[in-house]
UniProtKB/TrEMBL annotation:
Residues 39-72 form the CHCH domain. Residues 1-32 are annotated as: Disordered. It holds the Pfam family CHCH. This is CHCH domain-containing protein. It comes from Arabidopsis thaliana x Arabidopsis arenosa. Transmembrane segments: none annotated. Residues 1-14 have a biased composition (Polar residues). Keywords: Disulfide bond.
Amino acid sequence: MEKVTENPNSETQPSPAPPPNHQMDADDDDENVKQLKECSSLYLSLQDCLVDSNRDWKSCQKHVQALKECHERRMKK
């Protein structure tokens, strides 16, 4: 449900939607995420899944496997 705020003119306006989890994390000073390079988006996707599933690793196995495969590809280079 969208949150509605009132302004001084008594008009209601929807509040802006919150950004996706971790939208700006790769741009921040988080060196660990930056070190993942091409796998960083998969890592952040996994983090989003864990947040959305209340840290249920079983429900995020597709994300885990995708990150693992990306990491393995990086190590072969």
